[in-house]
């Protein structure tokens, strides 16, 4: 609309950015709907309401955790879209599984809110997060490989490396969940995985053996 | 707002596109709210949660199917709006039943998620999808006939033909649902109906007998 | 943003239009969430699901009715905003009760969907609609009186007259609800009230006795 | 996009404003979903529905109160963003707890709607509101201190003072809730706290002892 060439129909970045924002905002607000409402008996006195709230403390923690995780994924998507000059079919198509997992997240959040100690519940939550962040990483790599970015593609690949790092961290936490009941604390330090794991992955990928340009076949450029 | 002539009040494409996006995003995110949450007894152990999740596998499949179907309808609407230079009253009015059916879809999705084998449940879902896609086809034909498109109207009519093809495919699946319990697998190959059925329908319509210009009377042009 | 003078902070029309769109889209999509989902027993056979759907036919009708009513109010708001060049404090403030009633509408819709024959249920629905449409009429009159419109203020006042007509029609239907069980059919012909009642009200108001400029004191102009 | 210098990736004000709008609109519309729907027995007669509605009068009041409070916070955010020329990392980051509390508000609203007389319920609601308004105040102070505003930073600090005033008012109401059952009436006069308390706080802060520039360390300027 404001660029020199009008984008191909269906490939205007503004509308995809808007749609992504809407899905994130709705999913994040629906997280609070999952929180169990007290019934009349649990509201009859300060003590009754107090013990209701204390009993459900894990669901408030799960709400806050999922909200902050989705917020940080949204922020990274915001940064990505601000570097993008146009869309490709593959870039757009990978938003379908990405947003499906965002919309799905309230379900595993409700599950861990009720039974954080259950390893299968932790697997469900960490698996959804890992798959979501892997989709994010693929989207970034496609942007870097297809010449969609306005700046330096190497920077996008570094960001993709950070996303791969966060995703692997969640996969790792799945393994830990079956060994230790408190493995979920690993989720709170996921940002460290972005910083340290991301730097490691980026170094591995820029070495000849793992050249990122060889991965996604959507209009690659050297 | 940015074109040479300001559109008539109520006919600015941006706001209709935005409203459509919002309805789609909300309906797609609400699909996940339909998924039954496990109660405390079903969360007590890995085995209990595991059998809960396996029991409900159809509702996760229904969620993913409805999400992907709505995503593809939204993508086609995005492409349509990028070809549109203005709105007509009829074009806008047909969005009311179209969006009503989008908003309604979480209901049949919940129904098939619980009883996919029930032919009436399949009829409800496929009927809603067929009606939604027929509305989409009418909207495209109106755009082509009313001179709203900026490019070649014949291309919009080809797209409308693909939509009619997908809609007829869903109608066909209703008939099949009463004969075979697994007729719903037809829904997963609906994109093929767009490609092959759409080409067939477009050929039939461009023959003299089924000329598309004779259909919708909203400012037709030759 | 695009006009010659930047609007006063908090009075940019785009963001108010957007916020209104979002509230309408969410309320309209949530209408479908109100529809009772069948439980497993009601899904066991075609007959069971069929009688479930037939029993609830009123709630599907109520969903469609409320969706179409909200759509038409949204369309009129879209037309209004396309005629507006700026906002005033009063114009914006009246959106608070207006949008509150839009957000509230799913509640009376659920109530009439379950007991359309109950006169109090009809009163609740028609009263919410009447109050919403009266707010719409006040907003239009403020726009006309405060010089916010880019075209002819008299046209906005005619539109306001139509809104007052629709609102009075809903008030009238409340009276009828206590006399006849099927008074709700009056709601389906509300558009006629806009056309005929609106013309009548506009004529009364432009006569010296009911001059519209004397009503809302927010920067009146002659 | 329209300014002379393109903002740094992830720091375009439009998308943050949009995201904030979406969260507010969804939270405000979901408030009405909290309202308990009458079951069939409560709909059987005018008397039954009447006593149902009268019994729940507090939840309608809570809905209207929370809607109006969120509306006024949204309006102030709208005014703030219209004064902003760019974003900083701290300004954006403080939106995470701010919007988390907005999304959370439907939960305490449901709680006070059922048991307004319970002091712990009032504490939960007033505490959420206080924390939300404090976040708003911090966001405004950051905007003033970091040179993000296009006009006079002193005006933003006066607005921040009003927000601190409203927040303190809610904190005060928590204390009152444990002494008087009707302390919640203080919430209805919160706007007075913005006017009078805000003026007081602004005067205290501009005195040498409480200089606002010493507070937030995000790119301070004199």
From TrEMBL, chains A, B, C, D:
Keywords: Ion channel, Ion transport, Membrane, Potassium, Potassium channel, Potassium transport, Transmembrane, Transmembrane helix, Transport. The keyword Transmembrane applies. It catalyses: K(+)(in) = K(+)(out). The chain crosses the membrane at residues 16-37, 57-74, 86-107. It is found in: Membrane. It is a multi-pass membrane protein. Its main location: membrane. The keyword Magnesium does not apply. Belongs to the TMEM175 family. This is DUF1211 domain-containing protein. It comes from Streptomyces luteireticuli.
């Amino acid at each position: 609309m404001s660029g020199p060439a009008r984008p191909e129909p269906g490939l205007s970045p503004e509308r995809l950015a808007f749609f992504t924002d809407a899905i994130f905002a709705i999913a994040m607000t629906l997280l609070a709907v999952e929180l169990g409402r007290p019934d009349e008996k649990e509201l009859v006195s300060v003590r009754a309401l107090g013990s209701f709230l204390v009993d459900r403390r894990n669901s408030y923690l799960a709400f806050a955790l999922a909200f902050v995780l989705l917020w940080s994924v949204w922020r990274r998507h915001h940064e990505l879209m601000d570097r993008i000059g146009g869309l490709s079919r593959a870039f757009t198509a990978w938003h379908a599984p990405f947003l499906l997992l965002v919309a799905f997240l309230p379900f595993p959040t409700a599950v861990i809110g009720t039974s954080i100690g259950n390893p299968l519940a932790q697997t469900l939550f960490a698996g959804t997060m890992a798959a979501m962040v892997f989709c994010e990483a693929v989207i970034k790599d496609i942007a870097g490989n297809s010449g969609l970015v306005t700046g330096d593609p190497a920077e996008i690949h570094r960001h993709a490396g950070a996303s791969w790092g966060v995703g692997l961290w969640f996969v790792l936490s799945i393994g830990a969940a079956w060994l230790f009941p408190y493995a979920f604390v690993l989720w709170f330090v996921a940002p460290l995985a972005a910083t340290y794991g991301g730097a490691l992955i980026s170094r591995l990928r820029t070495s000849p053996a793992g050249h990122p340009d060889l991965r996604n076949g959507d209009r690659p450029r050297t």
